Amino acid sequence: xxxxxxxxxxVAGVFLLVRFRTPIFxxxxxxxxxxxxxxxxxxxxxxVMAVTTDQLSEYPLDPTALSLRGFSRFYLAMEEVEGERRxxxxxxAVRDLRxxxxxxxxxxxxxxxxxxxxxxxxxxxxxxxxxxxxxxxxRALGVERLDLLEYxxxxxxxxxxTDAVVEYFREAINLGDESVHRIALAELLxxxxxxxxxxxxxxxxxxxxxxxxxxxxxxxxLGESLRAQNRHREALRVYEExxxxxxxxxxxxxxxxxxxxAQGEPDRARFEWREAVRLNPNHIESLQRLQEY
Length: 293
Hints:
single chain; about 290 residues; mainly alpha; 16 helices
């Protein structure tokens, strides 16, 4: 998923902090705070980290510098694919932002909780509960962003909070009305055997979306739902429609094979699974079926 920050919101907040409160140090003593803000606006995160680190060596509890350094470390981590460097950036970002929250009257508290939650999520499953707490706090403080709801849904799914995941995706649909959220919610509802609601969501995507990839994903999920309901003829039509969108869909051929198997036609099922493997030699489900039948 793309992780972005509406930097204008945070930059505006930082400018307000500089202009309308009395900082720990006098602004006139140094140009560093303004420089850090300018660098942040330019998304020069490594330079922001260097400038704010220098500043914090003199003023260790300056909330502006701590906030900007924590934010920058998070985005530097997101630029790293994996490895110790990424993990260290995330750990340091969390430490900076937690330190800021210990200070009184923190102007950027909503944004700090928001980035703290995302950084905690990125650290891995052992930090999902912490991520949920921080992101929920950000919401309570007025942060309303699609990726916040996506993070909450993903973290909640992996800690077993199914009802919460459903609500987060519903809110994401209301906020952004994006097909990808409808598909994600529908797939969750299928696992919960809430087929009617799932089918409505998926049919909406098929009828309203121009993106062929999303249409294909919606059709495949709809086929899965119909198979689970033993509505085999409808499922077969949906898989055939999928092949009209993408004639090379191994998943569609696999689904057709499953329909034929359920109808007591193993020979026709094997033909479809072989076709799926021809299109995708690593299609595990079809390979397993060919070993079984």
